Amino acid sequence: NAGVTQTPKFRILKIGQSMTLQCTQDMNHNYMYWYRQDPGMGLKLIYYSVGAGITDKGEVPNGYNVSRSTTEDFPLRLELAAPSQTSVYFCASSSHRNAGAFSGNTIYFGEGSWLTVV
Amino acid sequence: AQKITQTQPGMFVQEKEAVTLDCTYDTSDPSYGLFWYKQPSSGEMIFLIYQGSYDQQNATEGRYSLNFQKARKSANLVISASQLGDSAMYFCAMRDQGGSEKLVFGKGTKLTVNP
Which of A42, A94, A111 comes nearest B101 by C-beta? Predict the structure, then answer.
């Protein structure tokens, strides 16, 4: 039961470097998300996608880019890393449910990626 | 815009006692969903319980129950018979009704269960 898989789990970047956080899901979910969690805070949405080829900005998109070329993959790109991007990143996926069919346990999170920019 | 407020940064409870974690929300949508997640020190997000705005009864899942008061826009989590393993961060979240199912999170409450 792979679910949502994120890599890497830990990474240290130098200021100005770039990297890609990988996210893959094997549940054929059409919706995917990237959240960040700063220390002592809740999760904030960076980008999301409602299907292959479609992406949209969330609450905190600056400094990030995404792509969704396949249903399974939703990589998050950090360009010119800054200390403010030190955070824990969570990828998540869900399937669209019709009203009345929503059970609640339909949003699946990856285990998180700890990123430090120094 | 939707907003979730958790006013308790930290809570303490004795083992085997019940505890209530507060959550209030703000939305103009008549249809919405409310979630509670547990985040232990290992960091993963664990789904606990869900309440839909049109659900007639308060949600329950084992030792977890949701005290849903729609008129007051509150969705408090009640944990009965607390266990040491319940020590964690707890987040309340609201599902966006725009069709994307993205979540808006509160800042969380750190629960500590004392032996």
Answer: A94
